[in-house]
Amino acid sequence: MRTFIAIELSQEIKDKLSELQDLLKKAGADVKWIEPENIHLTLKFLGEIDEGKSIKITGAIEDTAKKSRQFRMNLGSLGAFPRIEFPRIVWVGIDKGDKETAVLARELEERIEELGISKEERPFSSHITIGRVKGTLNKDGLANNLKELENYFSGRNIEFDVTKITLFKSTLGPGGPVYAALKEVKLTTA
């Protein structure tokens, strides 16, 4: 089964991100926008794993969560990989909570590498993917919209509590991926 570990977002946060997507859609670019119910912050993409590996990964998540405290996170600036002028992945960054998220991701990488799953080659970047550019149609318009809306969340103080991390199963279908939580693990309280 195809899996990943992520921070789930509240419905309120998903709604705010959906509003931003609606503004970006006005560019008419060829983008596959992430369905609001599927928006999350990925800590570690695992790929295909079997049931036995899933149990071991759950143990690694539980061990990591025991050492990690709940924290507040907020939505930051809008951006794109590799850069705004040439967007391929459209994302929203994290300001408050960035350090805690990076520590969680690093801990998970180390624990999961011990189980035989390779570390990610790229450095971790706390971000929430909201769209993937599929073609060149109106790409310049999208880049302009991204620049105009780069600070969309600045000063709006849109925060939420991160209280758990979740192991998800991703099933690819004709309508896009369907995510199902396999295991939710609570972070420790202060």
Task: Explain what this protein looks like in three dimensions.
This protein is an alpha+beta fold and 190 residues long. It has one domain (2-183): Cyclic phosphodiesterase (Cyclic Phosphodiesterase, Chain: A, Alpha-Beta Complex). The protein has four helices and nine strands; from the N terminus they run βαββαββαβαβββ. A hairpin with a 2-residue loop joins strand 8 and strand 9. Helix 2 (51-66) crosses helix 3 (98-113). The longest helix is centred in the first third of the chain and has 16 residues, at 51-66. It is globular, with a radius of gyration of 17 Å. The relative contact order is 0.27. The mean pLDDT is 93.
End-to-end separation in angstroms reads: 35 Å
Strand content: 35-45%
Question: Which consecutive residue ranges, at least 5 long each, have pLDDT under 50?
Answer: none
N-to-C SSE series? EHEEHEEHEHEEE
**For the largest beta sheet, what order do the strands appear in spatially?**
2-6-5-4-7
State the CATH superfamily name.
Answer: Cyclic phosphodiesterase
Number of helices: 4
CATH topology category name: Cyclic Phosphodiesterase, Chain: A
- Which quaternary structure do these chains form? single chain
Q: Report the count of strand segments.
A: 9
* CATH class category name: Alpha Beta
- Label the overall shape: globular
Annotated CATH architecture: Alpha-Beta Complex
Q: What's the pLDDT, averaged over the residues? A: 93
The proportion of residues forming helix, as a percent range, comes to: 25-40%
**How many strands, what sense, and barrel or not for the largest sheet?**
5 strands, antiparallel
Structural class: alpha+beta
The radius of gyration over CA amounts to: 17 Å
